Each structure stands twice: as structure tokens, then as C-alpha cells.
Amino acid sequence: MSPRSIGVVMNGVTGRMGYRQHLVRSVLAINEQGGVALSDGSRVLLRPVLVGRNPDKLAKLAADHGIADWTTDLDAALAVEENQIYFDAQVTQARVKSVLKAIEAGKHVYTEKPTAETVEEAVALAQAAEARGIKNGVVQDKLFLPGLLKLKRLIDGGFFGRILSVRGEFGYWVFEGDWQSAQRPSWNYRTEDGGGIVLDMFPHWAYVLENLFGRVRSVYAQTATHIPERVDERGETYAATADDAAYGVFELEGGIIAQINSSWCVRVNRDELVEFQVDGTHGSAVAGLRNCRFQHRAGTPKPVWNPDLPVTARFRDDWQEVPDNDEFDNGFKIQWEMFVRHVVEDAPFPYDFASGARGVRLAELGLRSSAEGRRLEVGA
Ligand SMILES: NC(=O)c1ccc[n+]([C@@H]2O[C@H](COP(=O)([O-])OP(=O)(O)OC[C@H]3O[C@@H](n4cnc5c(N)ncnc54)[C@H](O)[C@@H]3O)[C@@H](O)[C@H]2O)c1
């Protein structure tokens, strides 16, 4: 029996995330491996329908990858019954309108984060999806990074004892665009275009924290626009109106304190672009994208503060690597497979629009906390 296929309307595939991670590394990679494996042993292939604004770009993309269907008419793509899933990787500002259309058309919807720019809209999307009875999901890729999977393994194995705190450091230097081109699209640096590091990264921190440690109960954030002027893709100078760094303190369920710095204005002096240090009564760990080091309390050295003597201890030598013990697939692809199983055979998928809305709420509260200079409760 040949595998069946379902149509997936993919909007925003000419963009960075839509093309590389979702089309090439997920949907096409899934088809290359023979489809998504279901619990009964059968497989389901994905039939992408590319949607966007620029017909030339879409036609080229489709030809490059042997994809039969592309269109600039979203309504027409949604009107086709066999197209069961709508996926959105457009710029954040364009998301709500398209996702609502897909919900109204009765499609199951999977989308990049953030689900919306405001909590009001994010909650409205979750309610609309529930009212229409469609399956819904939001990308939460960081949970599937090998480093965080290893960290989860330590947590599940009881390694930490009581977890006290989490310190996250995320960021790298994004060039201003004048003497070296910027490595991120310019809209990220304009509030009026849906940019800003809080709206970009706090939704990630919300699901990372809630899935590994507990839901966020309160937030204090201080944001900054360290670089007020940048140069865009066309070589034109523009006012960078959005926050390009955010220094946040989050209080979690159970009393764990998480501190996360997010910045596009920091030079990397770490092993990875994001790292989380977790300290517990019985041990500590530092997890990055791929690796995770740990130190058990039995292997913890006893430093004594003495500025008069040179430091001879090599503290980082006292840590051990968590072994792979597994093969780690692309995180975006793993989540696509989970969502397809959720649609086709009702497999569990906890990363829904409601959790997406909690991410948007954390971003909104983070921005408000900074503007008002005070800690804010997140509420249930
Ligand atoms: N999961 C992650 O780790 C991650 C990382 C980066 C970005 N993102 C999210 O992915 C989305 C896309 O980000 P990106 O970095 O790929 O951006 P991008 O600028 O590279 O791509 C955006 C896409 O949207 C389309 N687009 C641009 N303006 C539009 C408009 N006005 N109306 C409709 N479509 C428009 C573009 O043609 C392109 O296909 C954003 O919502 C962003 O928050 C997620």
C-alpha cells in the first residue's frame, strides 16, 4: 500500500525560517525519509503548497525542489479540501489575519512563534481554534535541542535535588549593517514592524521555563535599545526603534528564580549562543544548544575568596559532559512529525495556541515591566 498524503499550505517559505527549517529541514526531509511514521506502522507524506506574495520567488523555490503547487492566493489554497494543514512562517505582523482565515476554513494550524503581537490577539486565536475544533500548534523548537534534551534527562533523573535557580545567557553581536552587513532582517529592529528582542525571545523563554522548571509567576525586565541606528538590506540607514537587549528576572512556580539575558549586542564568550546554568542542592549543569555539562555536589570544589592570591584552580575542568546516549534529529522536524501525528491520529501535542499565548503574554508583560520599572505578576 502506498503511503497517503496530506496537503500542507505553507505561508512565508521565502523567509529565513520558513525556507530552511520548515520547508527543507522538516517537510521535505520528512518526505525523503518516506513520510511521518504512524502508530499503526503506516506512513503519511506531506504535499507542500507554497504560498507567498512574490510569484517569481515562489516559482523558483518550487522548481528548485520539485514542488508542484504554489500560489499567491491564500484563499484559493485554503479552499482545497485535501489541504488539511495551514502553516505560517510569515513576519509576525502578518500572522493573525492569515491564521484566522485558516481557522475559519477549518484547517488545522501550525505556526511559528510568536502566535501574535498582543496577548489579546494570541488569546483570540486560541479561542477561535477551540471554537472551530481544529488542531493547533506553535513552534517550540528549543525544547528539542540536544543540549536541552540532555538537561531534561538530568531533571527527570532527579539529578539536581531541589532546583534553586536558572541563569540563561542568549545572544551574539548582530552587525549594524554599515561596515558589515547585518545577519538578521531589519524588521527585527523596528517596533512598528513587529520587531524587538523581547517579542522574539520571551515566547521561547516562556515555554522553555514552563516545560523544564515550572510556569512563570512574575517578571521583571529591563530592556534597552543599545544601537539606535542601523543600516538595512538596501543600504539605507534607519532608526532602530525596537529593544535589542533585555535583562529579565522570572519567578517560577515552586520558587525557582530564573534570570535570562537576551541580547543582539553582546560578543560571545561562551561555548554556545545560548546557555542555561541550573543550580540545585545536589548538583549543577550548564546546557547549551548541543552539549550539557554537569557537576555533582560530591565533585564540587571549595573555593575560598582571596583576591591577594592568583587563581590556580581551573574550575571548568571539574565538570563532566552528559553523554549523547541517543541520536538527536532536527528539532523543527521532530515537532512537525508530532504535529502531523496529532492531526492524523490524535497523538498528544502540548504545544498549542494556549501555550503560545502564554509566551506572548510574557513578552507583553516584560515590555510593560521595563516601561513601568516594576515587577509584574503573570497571573494564572
Ligand atoms: N522558532 C525560531 O527559533 C524562530 C527564529 C526566527 C524567527 N522566528 C519567527 O519566524 C517568523 C519569520 O521570521 P524570519 O526570520 O524567517 O523572517 P524573514 O523576514 O526571513 O521572512 C518572513 C517571511 O514573511 C514574508 N513577509 C514579509 N513581509 C510580509 C508582509 N507584510 N506580509 C506577508 N508576508 C510577509 C516574507 O516574504 C518571508 O517569506 C517570525 O514570526 C519570527 O518571530 C522563529
TrEMBL record:
Query: What are the Gfo/Idh/MocA-like oxidoreductase N-terminal domain coordinates in residue numbering?
Result: 50-133
**Domain of life of the native organism:** Bacteria
Which keywords fit this entry according to its UniProt record?
Oxidoreductase
**Which InterPro entries does the protein's record reference?**
Gfo/Idh/MocA-like_OxRdtase_N, Gfo/Idh/MocA_oxidrdct_glycsds, GFO_IDH_MocA-like_dom, NAD(P)-bd_dom_sf
A Pfam match is GFO_IDH_MocA_C3
**The keyword Oxidoreductase appears for this protein:** yes
Q: Which residues form the GFO/IDH/MocA-like oxidoreductase domain?
A: 149-285
| TM region(s), chain numbering | none
The name of this protein is Gfo/Idh/MocA family oxidoreductase
